[in-house]
Design a protein that fits this description.
Number of domains: 1
Subcellular location: Cytoplasm; Nucleus
GO molecular function: hydrolase activity
Strand content: 25-35%
Family: Belongs to the peptidase T1B family.
Oligomer: single chain
GO cellular component, one term: proteasome core complex, beta-subunit complex
Largest sheet: 5 strands, antiparallel
Radius of gyration: 16 Å
CATH class: Alpha Beta
Structural class: alpha+beta
Distance between the termini: 21 Å
GO biological process, one term: proteasome-mediated ubiquitin-dependent protein catabolic process
CATH architecture: 4-Layer Sandwich
């Protein structure tokens, strides 16, 4: 088993028409043993900007603290809110600095740009960026998520339809992965507001 799969995780980010959705499962495990049923893996960076951190739980917490510190320093030095593209390159740089002893985490960024256009970006352990026009997935359930997202995603979905597609993809994918699950959290980001939904899932 890869060290990135030790705790289990499932994260998906999807784009819609002037909206974006990012969601994750709630389970924290030690291989097959469930330790916690409400472990946070998607974090708010700004009002319309979130980052998901699938991977080793200790590195998730460490990397989140480092990102929060870097973003606060950016706000103080630049005197403006950080944009999704800037955040992606900032995190990529942080990961590449640790390439010889990397964080076992593959971040996924989701948000809206200054023009309220959807933005999603993924990266690997050493910060190699990977963009997509439709969706990005990560975690131990990523193989299942690919299939579900391919089936359910459609271009130019509104916030409600995008939420339904992402939620169904996430819940059905984790049902087929023993390392993730126990419900999900989904954030729907629109120009006006961000809504957070907690979903019930199988707990067996």
């Amino acid at each position: 088993m890869s060290i990135t799969q030790y705790n289990g995780s499932a994260i998906v980010a999807m784009t819609g028409k002037n909206c974006v959705v990012i969601g994750c499962d709630k389970r924290l495990g030690q291989q097959a043993l469930t330790v916690d049923m409400n472990f946070e893996k998607v974090f708010r960076v700004k009002d319309k900007l979130y980052v998901g951190l699938p991977g080793l739980a200790t590195d998730v917490q460490t990397l989140h603290d480092r990102i929060r510190y870097r973003v606060n320093m950016y706000d103080l030095e630049e005197e403006r809110a950080i944009q999704p593209d800037n955040l992606a390159h900032m995190i990529s740089n942080m990961l590449y600095q640790k390439r010889f002893g990397p964080y076992f985490c593959e971040p996924i960024i989701a948000g809206l740009t200054e023009k309220d256009e959807p933005y999603i970006m993924g990266m690997d352990l050493i910060g190699c960026l990977s963009s997509a026009p439709d969706f990005i997935v990560g975690g131990t359930a990523s193989d299942n998520l690919y299939g579900m997202c391919e089936a359910l995603w459609e271009p130019d979905l509104g916030p409600d339809d995008l939420f339904r597609s992402a939620s169904q993809a996430l819940l059905n994918a984790v049902d087929r992965d023993a390392m993730s699950g126990w419900g999900a959290v989904v954030h729907v980001i629109t120009p006006e507001k961000t809504e957070t939904y907690h979903l019930q899932g199988r707990q067996d």
